[in-house]
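Quick illustration, no need to memorize.
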Amino acid sequence: MLSIGIVGAGIGGLTLALACRDNGFKYITVYEQADRAEGLGAGIQLSPNATRVLHALKLRDALKEPAFYPRAVHFRTSRSGFIVAQRPLGKFSEDRYGAPYYHIHRADLHQVLLDAASELSIDIQLDRCCTDVEPKDGSITFEDGTSVSHDVVVGCDGIHSAVRAAIHGPDEPRFTGHVAWRAMVPVERLPKQLIAPTATVWMGPRKHFVHYYVRGGALVNFVGIVENPSWQEESWRTLGDKRELANEFADWHASLATLIDNVDDCYKWALYDRDPLPNWSVGHATLLGDACHPMLPYMAQGAAMAIEDAWVLSRMLEHYEEDIAGAFSEYAKYRKPRTAKVQIGSRAQGKSFHLDDGWSIFKRNLRLGLGTRFLPEIAMQQLDWLHGYDCIRGFD
């Protein structure tokens, strides 16, 4: 039976641990650099391609309470708030794809995964910061000088992955010139019906703003993305200045000013990106999620791609248990084309949201509006490759 070492106890790492245990693997250890396992305070969107994996891991009931079930996604103009286009979610999405679309607080999803791992007695070791990996023998070295070895080592340690560096050598991600502002607002502070029960994307010149409910509708999560090449600090924990945030969107729709005005703390960080990798694996080590395909958040697929990766990798390790190289090869064969497509699509989506000349904006709005208002079936078909992807059926 393979011994599996997972570096990183985030969403991807914990989902992989659960998928491997679901697949019958007994010897699974997750190593987390932090001294406590916690999810950070941001909302994420879980499209059906991700929720079907979580449901297959028997997490359907655990997700019901913290998740929010949005009715649709709306695309609005920045000042007037005119709805350029809308796509149904809710029951339509569930009927079409066989799994729901959820909005959820990242910390709530992380806790659901932690609770499931605890129930299955999966070994999660905290304060174990990986500094190096030797792919030839599967050894992991930690900051305190200790080391362990596994048959399989999976780097689920994010965009600054130590496992990635061990496989490919040191490199730096590319700053995109985009800066994200994030915050949460309790619903009781806001006027009733200020925020629709949808994912709402406000599009404007060189910036955009997204908001939606999380924690069962108790909180509104928002992220505002602005083009700002001069600020390059990458940290989810860096506090921003609320006045600066308000000024960034001062001439936008009044509802956004109300939302921002009711914020306690807001966080600001620079967005980084990498090109698709030529290969993900060497020897006993491979990569998963942001460690191998970091992507911009404009298609809301970062967590979803890591969750898909986890299921596929766990199944490949089962089918090729005696051939680790074969398992890694098949894993990359199935995952690389899809994740690269999402990486590239996310970049293009960001450019579309940030158009700043009138003719380009008119063509974008006409394309979005005609499709969703008059040809909704054709418009939704454009998402079938993304939301309709079923790695459960494909790899079970």
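The chain has a mean pLDDT of 92.
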